[in-house]
Each structure stands twice: as C-alpha cells, then as structure tokens.
C-alpha cells in the first residue's frame, strides 16, 4: 500500500545527478526515513548517472513510500540499451567498466531491486526496508527456516546445580543428569571446578571459582560429561543465602545453542542487604535494546560503569583498526569536550597504561603520575581499566576512576571485566554499523565533491570550493596554502570559518605564524603553531585587560579572544599532492578543546587528493590560457592608424571557446607617406594551426608592402612563403589593397582579391556593387598571375570587406550569402564606419540562433562627407 509518493524529471545534463540526489535526500528527510537516506542517495546517484550520462536521456525519479520502507524508481527513455544483469548476478562484471556499477551497488545495499522494460522506457528500481522491532520487544531474532534452527533434544533440559560456600555441589537435578551423564550421588560434595573445562576468561586471568563468588554472573563456558567430552554451555549464576545466613550459588545451565532460554534482560536480582550489592547497573543497558547511535550506547555504558563501581568518573576508548591507538569516545565526570577524540597509544611502556590489552588497577595515580594519561590533572586517584575484546581482538578499553585513593582492587576489576565482556560485542557491532554509515555518507560526499571540483577550471573558484566543502562538514575552519613554484614558501591563499565574522581575525593570526613545512615525507600531521599563537594571544589579551583595568574579554589591539578560541583546538595539515609534487597545504582546525575523529581525517585525506588534482588542473589551465591569449593577441594589430579623411572600423570574432585569434585576420597599416595598406583574409580552418598561418601572412604583408612592391607582387611572394611551409601550409583567401587619400577629398583604392569574398562598394545614393573581381586564392598553386584593380571612394561612400564567416552564416538550408549582405549594406547609407560594421554583425547574429561556428572579420572604410 503506497502511503506517499513524489516524482521529478531531470534533463540529460551532468548537473542533474546532483539535483536528483538532493531531491531524494529532501523527500526521505520529509518522510522521516533518515536511516535510509545515505543508501538511497548513493543508489540514486549511480542510476541517474546511467540514465543521463550513459543512456543520454532525461530521467524521472519516483519515490514511493509504504509501511515497510521506500521504493525508488529511475526511469529513462532508452529501453533498447540493455543492462548487464547476467554479469551482475554471476559476479563477473568488469570493475574497470563504467557500466553496471549501479547494479552492483543495488545488489549490495538494496533489500530488493529489479528492471522493468516497456516499449518506450526502462525502469531500474530498488527497495530499502526499515529495520524496526515491534513495540515492547526487548530482544528478537530474524525468522529462520526450520533447517537453520539450532539442534536440540526432544525436550530442552535446564540443569539446576547448587554450589555451597566452598564451591562444592550440593544439588544436582535430573536434567543435569541427562545433560552430563552424572548421577547426583557421583557429583554431590565435589567442587564444580572439577567438572569445568573453562580456560579462563580472555584477558582477565580469572576462572570459574571467581565467577561463583560474584553476586550475579551470566555467560558461556564448558563442562565435561561422564565420557570426558567438553559440552559448551550457557549459564546464569545467582548468589543467595538461606535463613541461617549461609551463602550458596544457584546455577541454571543449558546447552550453548539453547542460550536464548536463559539469556533474558529482565532478570530480577536477589534481595540484598548488609554489604551485598544489588545487580549491576549495566544489566539495564546490556539486556535492553541498545541506542540507535554508537555515541548514545557508549555514553550509557560509561554512566552505568561509573554507577556499578560507585566511581566519580568513567571513560571508554575505542581502538583504531590496527589496534595501535585508542580514541576517547565517551566520558562522564571528566571534561568531555577537551578529551573527546583524543588519541593515546595502546602500548606506552612500563608504568604508562601498562597495557590496554589486560585489566589494570592503580590504587593512587599520585604515586604513578602519567600511568593513565587521560586522567592527568583531573583530580582522580584510583582507577581500574579493562579491555573490550571481540574474538580475541582488542576493540577498546573501559575505565572507572575515583577521587579516593585505594578505592579499587582486583575484585572490582573482575566485575568490570565481566561487564565489559558482555557489552564488547554490542559496542563493536554499533561501531561497525556507524563505520558503514559513515562510509556510505563519505562516498556520497566524495561523489558530490568530485563533481563540483571537476566543474571548474578557475583557480580562485577551486580554492573556494575546497574550503566550502571542508567547512563545516569536516572542520570548523580551514586555510589553504599554495606553492607557486617548486622550493618556494607556502603562501596563505584562502581562509574560511563557519562564522564569517571570524575569518578576518583567523587570517590575521595565521599571517603572523610561519606556514607549515611542505616536506612531502611528513604526510598528514598535527600543526601546533595556530593553537600556540592563539594561547599566547589570549594570555597577552588577559594581561593587557588587567593592566588597563578593563573587564576581561573587552576588545584589545590584535587578535581578539574570540579568534584565539576559534583556532585553539587541534589543527592538522594535509599536503596537496598532484603529479608527485606538493602544490599546497590544507590546514583544518577545531576550536578550543575539540579534536578530530580518525574517520574524519581519513575522509579529509581522500578529499585533499581530489582537490589537489583539481587545483593543479586549474593552475595548468590558467597558465596555458594566459600563454595562448598572449600569443594570440600578438597576432592582431596593436591598434588602427588614424588616416586623415578616412573613417576606419573593424569587428573581429574568433570561433571556439578561449580563442582570440583564429583563421580570419585583418590589418590596416601605413606603407609610406600618403599611402596605407589594408588586408582581410581567411586561412583554411580555425584554431591554433590556422592562427599560425595568420601570423605569417600578416607580418609578411607589412614587410613586403614597405619594400615598395605592388599588390600583385606582395601576394605572389606571400604565396611562395605559404607553400614553403610544407605539411603545415594551408590555403588562404586574401583581399589586399592600398589606400591613397586624395587632397581634394575621397580616396583611391588599388586592390587584389585572391579567392576572397568580393569587397562591396556603397555609394552615397544607396547603390551597392562589387569593388573588385575574383582571382585565384593563395597556397594552392606555385605560379600565380595576379593583377591589380582600382576604385574611387567619394565622400559618403563605404567599402565593406568581410570574411566568409559572414556570408556563409547558415540557418538550416538558408544562407545569408552575398545578396543578403548587399541588402544589409544598402540600408547603411549615411551611417559611420562603426555603425555600418555593427549593423552587419547584428544582421549576422540574428540570421541564425546557433553560435557562430566560423571566424568572422568585418572591415569598413568610409569617406566622411
């Protein structure tokens, strides 16, 4: 039954992937399905990418909610494009291939998934089910097929064994006889330890005798039967006393595979009086469903541990994957903000923690200062620490401390160890669940970060994106240092804080601190300089306030106390490495008394690698663009000369992004006194190769014309120079002319039109006619015979010269052509040279809606009236 639905359609462009992720995240957040968001976003990202990138069609994303969870469908319009379903099902998909990865993720993360085909579209869908226990359930397992249920006898037997003060058996029921093969007469009066096959609890150095002395105990061990075989059992021990005050222990024992019979969270402890303690407060935590989040579970654990041993403080540390360090994750009774995520080594030598792998009791830390670094300066004296282990592997450490020296002994260590053994698996399970959730969240974060970084080649924008992606997701503030050349000092290039008002203060503080060392061998490391500078600033500010009689915290010169607090926590430096070279440094910081989590640092490392490559690509692009633009600008005339009695205007447009010069070119230059040369040409093709011939032609024209050669001779020599270029030569159309202003007004024109669109002459009365005749183009044949033609421009006349990018402007099958250009020019009577060129350009742009695909040059000469 569908209880809610939402849908949106996304166009086949790259940015649609990020938009689709946001749509799914917002929809599930609104429905309260926060535990499904990360998986849903990752799967949606992959499937929408398949649709808009690989299938190349628009994609419709549908979210369908029902009481059990959510179904998400991604529909594209390319049903013919088959999916590699068989390869995915057999696990044979090529992981280096882009196709099919989304299906692998569906198979790994989704409850169910599938593909539906129709004649017009294809729908890839997946389901994510909510995991929820019925109301009131304290412990439950999945529904299992009969063959998967544990094997038992016809009747489940519960052995009841009673042990007296001396740990000898005083009662042995019939079920005990059936389980272990001993009659009551054979075992009564013998120590229970004689039947035990318990190799001591791992890491505690204790055995069954110590367990029987406790008021309560529950767990697994082994008992030998009458044939000498070891039977794994699960037992509950309860210490009681009779009416005469004589203590004994009642043991309920079942086979280990039947432990659910006894493993109950709601056991009622026996009546306690005198010095006997009630049941451990950890029972309420261990026996009840743990909190959904790891932090909640750990916090409840330390609080129960403190209460269990009547301590003043407690702490819990989790081990890193390599078990070399412990990370503080929960405390009570201690300055948690200062200690949270602090890291200490597992093995710190004699007298420093001893070893986190074994229980440890310190009667007075004043006698052994530094034995537990976490408690230094907290006023704690007695402390007991025990390891958390799962399958023999160290996963953490649990400790309880007291301000009273000598408070704890081995008995408390034993009690705490039993509690730790019972909670270790739940903690490890919650930790792995959190790691998996963080991994999926990190994957979604890195996917989006990579997409954003790949979307720009602007250096400044890349720096801003790097900072904005880290703050506040990974850190409270960040600074980016760049290294312009190998061996140069890092330069502070960008600073960001989650509170914009603190950015200037942090930047001022960092500018007074020496930048981090860019040595690549140092890797990711802690950088103490900002925190030290912040501490010194705060101290000086406080002393200055006292000396001046100002209230503490009043504004003083230099960095404020607020800024000092903002950078007073842990700061780490990550090198930005691209192409085996350090191109910068990324500094991430926390405010006072805060530290980084290890998984956050690992995510920051992944991000820094992507950001470094993006920053280096932006640098290379900027450098090459600057070089290209500089070279291209050198191919254009620096400026147009002022010619008495002649109005000159040029408009130039190069095709292609980032191109300032292409295959079209123009030039107007003085030849000698009273004579000026003008040219407009078109090299075959566009881009850098055509621009190279452009430079050759423009400079050759100036040189040859100033040698006194006439138009035909200039073009014939230029033709020979082009042919000498060999494979790099390109044919060239060129209109070259000489302009001779006349003393009485007007100007004489001498022109050679070598394969170029003919120049158009507009007279004062609106008549338009070609001003020259066509001749062979350059760069094709060796022996050219060109001739010169003359024309006269009178006051009010205009000469219009264009390249074929103007006349060959197309819209479908229509082309502007020579006739269309002549019609535009005929309407320009009385306009200035600039107005004529602008009207022609406007007519070209309006002729077709697409961007021009060819270079364009427009040169106009007009004789003012």
TrEMBL record:
Pfam families assigned to the protein according to its UniProt record, in alphabetical order: GAF, GAF_3, HATPase_c_2, PAS_9, SpoIIE
Single annotated GO MF: phosphatase activity
Record InterPro entries: Bact_Sigma-Reg, GAF, GAF-like_dom_sf, HATPase_C_sf, HATPase_dom, PAS, PAS-like_dom_sf, PPM-type-like_dom_sf
SMART domains: GAF (SM00065), PAS (SM00091), PP2C_SIG (SM00331)
UniProt KW keywords: Hydrolase
Alphabetized PROSITE patterns for the sequence: PAS
PAS domain residues: 160-190
Spans annotated as Disordered: 262-293
Alphabetical list of NCBIfam families matching this protein: sensory_box
Listed name of the protein: GAF domain-containing protein
Organism in which the protein naturally occurs: Streptomyces radicis
């Amino acid at each position: 039954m569908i209880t809610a639905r939402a849908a949106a359609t996304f166009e086949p462009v790259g940015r649609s992937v990020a938009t689709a992720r946001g749509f799914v995240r917002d929809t599930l957040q609104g429905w309260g399905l926060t535990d499904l968001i990360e998986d849903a976003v990752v799967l949606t990202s992959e499937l929408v990418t398949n649709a808009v990138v690989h299938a190349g069609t628009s994609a419709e994303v549908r979210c369908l909610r029902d009481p059990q969870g959510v179904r998400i469908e991604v529909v594209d319009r390319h049903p013919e494009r088959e999916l590699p379903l068989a390869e995915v099902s057999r696990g044979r998909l090529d992981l280096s291939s882009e196709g099919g990865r989304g299906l692998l993720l569906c198979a790994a993360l989704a409850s169910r998934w599938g593909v539906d085909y129709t004649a017009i579209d294809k729908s890839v869908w997946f389901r994510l089910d909510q995991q929820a226990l019925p109301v009131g359930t304290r412990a439950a397992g999945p529904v299992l097929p009969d063959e998967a249920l544990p094997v038992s006898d016809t009747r489940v037997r519960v052995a009841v064994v009673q042990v007296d003060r001396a740990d000898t058996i005083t009662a042995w029921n019939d079920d005990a006889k059936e389980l272990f093969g001993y009659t009551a007469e054979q075992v009564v009066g013998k120590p229970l330890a004689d039947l035990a096959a318990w190799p001591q609890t791992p890491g505690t150095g204790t055995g069954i005798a110590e367990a029987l002395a406790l008021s309560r105990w529950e767990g697994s061990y082994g008992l030998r039967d009458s044939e000498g075989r070891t039977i794994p059992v699960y037992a509950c021990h309860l210490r009681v006393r009779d009416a005469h005050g004589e203590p004994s222990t009642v043991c309920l024992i079942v086979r280990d595979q039947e432990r659910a019979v006894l493993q109950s969270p709601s056991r009622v402890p026996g009546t306690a009086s005198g010095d006997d303690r009630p049941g451990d407060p950890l029972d309420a935590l261990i026996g009840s469903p743990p909190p959904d989040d790891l932090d909640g579970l750990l916090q409840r654990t330390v609080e129960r541990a403190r209460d269990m041993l009547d301590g003043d403080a407690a702490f819990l540390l989790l081990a890193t994957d390599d078990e070399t360090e412990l990370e503080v994750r929960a405390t009570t009774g201690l300055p948690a903000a200062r200690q949270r995520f602090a890291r200490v080594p597992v093995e710190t030598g004699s007298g420093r923690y001893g070893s986190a792998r074994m229980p440890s009791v310190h009667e007075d830390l004043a006698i052994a200062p530094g034995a537990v670094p976490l408690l230094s300066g907290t006023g704690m004296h007695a402390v007991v620490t025990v390891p958390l282990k799962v399958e023999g592997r160290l996963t953490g450490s649990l400790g309880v401390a007291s301000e009273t020296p000598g408070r704890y002994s081995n008995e408390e260590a034993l009690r705490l160890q039993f509690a730790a053994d019972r909670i270790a698996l739940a903690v490890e399970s919650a930790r792995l669940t959190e790691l998996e959730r963080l991994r999926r969240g990190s994957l979604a974060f890195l996917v989006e970060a990579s997409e954003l970084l790949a979307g720009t080649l602007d250096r400044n924008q890349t720096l801003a994106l790097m900072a904005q992606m880290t703050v506040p997701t990974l850190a409270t503030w960040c600074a980016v240092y760049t290294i312009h050349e190998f061996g140069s000092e890092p330069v502070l290039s960008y600073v960001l804080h989650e509170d914009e008002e603190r950015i200037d203060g942090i930047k001022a503080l960092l500018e007074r601190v020496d930048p981090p060392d860019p040595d690549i061998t140092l890797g990711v490391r802690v950088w103490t300089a900002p925190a030290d500078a912040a501490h010194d600033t705060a101290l000086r500010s406080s002393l200055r306030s006292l000396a001046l009689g100002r209230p503490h915290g009043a504004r003083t010169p230099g960095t404020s106390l607020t800024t000092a607090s903002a950078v007073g926590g842990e700061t780490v430096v990550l090198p930005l490495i691209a192409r085996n070279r350090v191109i910068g440094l990324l500094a991430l910081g926390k405010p006072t008394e805060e530290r980084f989590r290890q998984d956050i640092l690992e995510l920051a490392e992944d991000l820094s690698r992507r950001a470094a490559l993006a920053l280096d690509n932006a640098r290379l692009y900027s450098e090459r663009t600057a070089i290209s633009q500089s070279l291209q600008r050198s191919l254009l005339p620096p400026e147009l000369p002022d010619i008495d009695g002649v109005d000159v205007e040029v408009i130039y447009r190069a095709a292609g992004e980032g191109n300032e010069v292409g295959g079209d070119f123009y030039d107007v230059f003085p030849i000698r006194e009273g004579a000026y040369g003008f040219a407009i040409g078109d090299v075959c093709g566009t881009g850098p190769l055509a621009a190279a011939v452009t430079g050759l032609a423009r400079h050759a024209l100036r040189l040859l014309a100033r040698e006194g050669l006439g138009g035909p001779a200039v073009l014939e020599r230029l033709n020979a120079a082009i042919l000498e270029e060999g494979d790099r030569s390109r044919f060239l159309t060129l209109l070259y002319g000489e302009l001779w202003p006349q003393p009485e007004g007007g100007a004489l024109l001498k022109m050679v039109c070598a394969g170029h669109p003919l120049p158009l002459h507009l007279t004062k009365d609106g008549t338009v006619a070609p001003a020259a005749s066509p001749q062979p183009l350059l760069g094709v044949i060796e022996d050219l015979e060109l001739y010169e033609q003359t024309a006269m421009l009178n006051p009010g006349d205009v000469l219009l010269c264009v390249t074929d990018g103007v006349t060959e402007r197309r819209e479908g099958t229509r082309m502007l052509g020579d006739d269309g250009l002549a019609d535009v020019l005929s309407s320009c009577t009385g306009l200035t040279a600039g107005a004529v060129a602008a009207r022609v350009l406007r007519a070209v742009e309006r002729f077709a809606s697409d961007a021009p695909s060819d270079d364009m040059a427009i040169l106009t000469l007009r004789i003012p009236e």
